[in-house]
Design a protein that fits this description.
Layout: H1 21-31, E1 37-38, H2 53-61, H3 76-88, E2 99-102, H4 104-116, E3 122-127, H5 131-139, E4 143-148, H6 159-163, E5 170-176, H7 188-201, E6 204-208, E7 232-238, E8 251-257, H8 263-275, H9 281-284, H10 287-292, H11 297-301, H12 306-319, E9 324-325, E10 334-335, E11 338-339, H13 349-360, E12 362-363, E13 365-366, E14 378-381, H14 386-406
Parallel strand pairs: 1-12, 3-4, 3-5, 5-6, 6-7
Antiparallel strand pairs: 2-8, 7-8, 9-11, 10-14, 13-14
Helix pairs in contact: 1-13, 4-5, 4-8, 12-14
Length: about 400
Amino acid sequence: MSAPILRAHHLQGVRYEIRGPLARRAHELERQGYEILKLNIGNPAQFGFRTPETMRLAMIENLAQAEGYCHQKGVFPAREAVVMDTQSRGIRGVTAEDVFMGNGVSELILMCMEALLERDDEVLVPSPDYPLWTAAVTLSGGKPVHYPCRPEHRFVPDPAEIEKMITPRTRAIVLINPNNPTGAVYPREVLQQLVRIAEQRSLVIFSDEIYDRILYDDAQHIPIATLCEGTLCATFGGLSKVYRACGFRTGWVFFTGKKSHATDYLEALELLASLRLCSNVPGQWAVQTALGGVQSIYDLTAETGRLGRQRRALLRGVEASKFLDCVPPRGAMYAFPSVDEKLIPGFDDARFAMELLEKEHVLVVPGSSFNVPYRNHFRLTLLPDEETIAEVFIRIDRLLTRWSANGA
């Protein structure tokens, strides 16, 4: 009998439950003929959102130039388009040499951590977080240290609390703004305080701004790079969300702030970029058109736009339930509702999500998947149409009513 083949030790503790057991069970149910309402992944194409036509044409028209490898940092027109976009936003000092193109932001996050961290180095990561950040730190041998973004503070972090968590092993701080999974958008004064802490403690800032133009009501996104001068700052963006082009797998990271002391680190990052040869070339040819063209996302996020209406439908569903509460998302394409544990003692988000799938055929993500200490939240996306969202909350409330009557 052969010995079992086990996963590598460094994968212990690495989780990505957005595509984990619940998603696999949903696939099994679909194969049995059930229709599953999937609200687990922010994949615009799944809900009928199209990549702007001008971007598709730009990629097609440049296919002849996309058949071979490109420079390890990416094609020059794409990197230069990122530079021009930074200038339009008041970010200073970015050149094409400061920009790396990647196979989505996910690849770049993994590369940036691998190039930086020694074993047991610490990185401050928000809680809740997009779980790839915690996984990337762990895979690189580091230790993720989660700083709380509390529901009672509308999921905005407290800089004073974060500063107390810094140790001699702390190397960096991660920001996700606008936030996934909560939709929080951080105020300027909070960002200014976090920058001062990072500069004083010589911490690298990693700012995930993939949702930077997806904003609601009067929310204003402040690029962290406009505030940071005294330490190295890495800002991540891409085509997946704002431009509804997840399948293009095209993201970027650019570096600002103090760079003179980071030459060795940036050379290591270029080495890793070289080892994977280059990122997806066809998608890069859509970047210039995306960043320089009409920003159609604003029509979608407007109060009368599709995302604006679907956000309101989600909040109406929460308001109609006596069991639910939710901090209204001010950005991104998710909400992070909570369940009143006084009405349902013993509530457990993972068991709730599985029963919601099995009994009501709705797929959501348990809140504990996002590295939080509590178990009464869940994440769902705003992407389905208003009728689907209304139906989802009818089914959620039906399950919660049963739990309330029979005990969780």
